Amino acid sequence: VQLQASGGGLVQAGGSLRLSCVVSGNIWRVNVVGWYRQAPGKERELVAEMTRGGSINYADSVKGRFTISRDRDNAENTVYLQMNSLKPEDTAVYYCKVTDRFSNYDYWGHGTLVTVSS
Asked: How far apart are alpha carbons 4 and 16 in whole angstroms?
């Protein structure tokens, strides 16, 4: 499984960004897809995740502002994170992650930096 994340950038507080993560390879093995973030000096934390069956979980800090979604086609999936009403505290490197449903192995994409200015 390979992941390629994109969409980060600089935005003013109150603005929006959409992150994308293209998942390719053995996508039939993928169970959970998710977005995590790591701010400077802090540990990586869950932002949002979606199971194969469509159940979604959000961090309390992003509920009502962020939306995770997934497009599927035959060759690859794309996982999106729509981020609205961004705050300076949302500044972080954002990572997408998928979990293999057989081995529970986690695959991580390279991070994409989101910077929210006040």
From this structure: 20
- Can you tell me the distance from the alpha carbon of 92 to that of 94, in angstroms, rounded to the nearest whole number? 6
Quote the DSSP letter at residue 61.
G
Alpha carbon distance 67, 56 (integer Å): 9
At residue 96, the 3 state secondary structure works out as strand
Digit-coded pLDDT (tens) for 25-77: 998 899 899 999 999 999 999 999 999 889 999 999 999 999 999 988 767 89
Cα–Cα separations (whole angstroms), residue 57 to 16, 41, 53, 69: 20, 25, 12, 11
SS3 89: helix
**Backbone phi and psi for residue 60, each to the nearest 5 degrees, phi listed first:** -55, -35
CB-based contacts of 28: which residues, under 8 Å, 6+ apart?
A: none
> Mean pLDDT across the chain, nearest whole number?
95
pLDDT value, residue 76: 81
